[in-house]
Amino acid sequence: KFLNESCSICSEDFIEKSFVCELQCRHVYHFACIRLWLLKKSSCPFCRQAI
């Protein structure tokens, strides 16, 4: 079970575990969403921990 039920970037629910990415801070996002985020910024969108 994930700490959050939906992606904080796109606000859509997680449907399949294989399409998610958990960062070191334990926040979980859709792989595609966090990939695009990390191309622009180098921190978690939720807690701002450096990645």
Question: Can you put this structure into words, describing what you see?
Answer:
This protein is α+β, with helices and mostly antiparallel strands and 51 residues long. The chain has one domain: Herpes Virus-1. The chain has one helix and two strands; from the N terminus they run ββα. The protein has one helix spanning 31-40; strands spanning 20-22, 28-30. The protein has a two-stranded antiparallel ribbon. Strand 1 and strand 2 form a beta hairpin. The termini are far apart. Keywords: Metal-binding, Transferase, Ubl conjugation pathway, Zinc, Zinc-finger. Residues 7-48 form the RING-type domain. GO terms for molecular function: ubiquitin protein ligase activity; zinc ion binding.
List the main descriptive attributes of the protein structure presented here.
51 residues, alpha+beta, two-stranded antiparallel ribbon, globular, ubiquitin protein ligase activity
